[in-house]
Specification:
- The chain is an alpha/beta fold and about 240 residues long.
- It has 2 domains: about 130 residues, Rossmann fold, CATH 3.40.50; about 60 residues, Arc Repressor Mutant, subunit A (Orthogonal Bundle), CATH 1.10.10.10.
- Helix content is about 45%, strand content about 15%.
- It contains 11 helices and 8 strands.
- α9 crosses α10.
């Protein structure tokens, strides 16, 4: 509370000082970032500290160690694996993390839960759901989009497929096909109309999931798995 004295009538005006939460957005999708900026700017209890489109930019923004909330898409920032998020939580214990993503696999969901990140919503969320998720995140309460709950808590549907850590999403399989076609990361980004860093992050996630170390191993595995049809590959 802050007391302000009026010179006119000597009355005391009590002004409520509400807590201001500093927010960082880490995402490389322009439209998503612009939408979040607009939503946050309209709320008096939030202050946008900055926008990061790369891991380097994010680490720089976090240096003052004063931010309370990070809204990020792990697939659209060049994190060095999901453990990067765990390291952020260790270095910045005051930081709450909300994952805002287009897609997530069962394995990624499990990995994030293991890291203590239990606030995940899809980018299709409306304004009310986004702010409900933000509120829960800041209060250290779990929050998941209904679609995520349906996908991961109904263990009876497609359990044998979903539990396989080597299962790739449709987007990841499409990127595998483009890699097999000989496209570079930059060319894939242009073709898919996404950022270079997003493609690079997808590549890292794909290699990690299927446990390969190079494109040649990935393509051979893709042929065996049936992700690529009628392809001639020469070593």
């Amino acid at each position: 509370m802050n007391c302000q004295y009026s010179n006119d009538n000597l009355s005391i005006i009590i002004i409520s000082m509400e807590k201001i939460y500093k927010v960082i957005i880490a995402d490389s999708q322009f439209l998503v970032v612009e939408a979040l900026k607009s939503l946050i700017a309209a709320e008096t209890e939030f202050l946008l500290e900055g926008i990061a489109t790369t891991r380097h930019e994010l680490l720089k923004l976090l240096q003052p160690n004063t931010c309370q909330l990070l809204i990020t898409d792990f697939a659209n920032i060049d994190y060095d694996g999901l453990d990067d998020l765990k390291n952020l939580k260790i270095r910045h214990p005051q930081l709450s993390i909300l994952i805002l993503t287009n897609t997530i696999s069962r394995q990624e969901f499990a990995d994030l839960s293991r890291l203590g990140i239990k606030n995940i919503i899809y980018k299709t969320a409306d304004k009310d759901e986004i702010f409900s998720a933000i509120e829960s995140t800041l209060k250290s309460k779990k929050f998941y989009s209904d679609e995520i709950l349906d996908l991961f808590l109904d263990l009876s549907d497609n359990k044998s497929i979903s539990d396989d850590p080597k299962t790739l999403t449709p987007s990841e399989i499409e990127i595998v096909k483009l890699i097999a076609d000989g496209l570079t990361t930059k060319e894939i980004a242009n073709k898919r109309n996404i950022s270079y860093h997003t493609v690079n992050t997808h590549r890292k996630n794909i290699f990690r999931k299927v446990e390969v170390s190079n494109a040649s191993e990935l393509i051979m595995l893709a042929i065996k798995a049936g992700w690529i049809d009628n392809i001639e590959y020469y070593i």
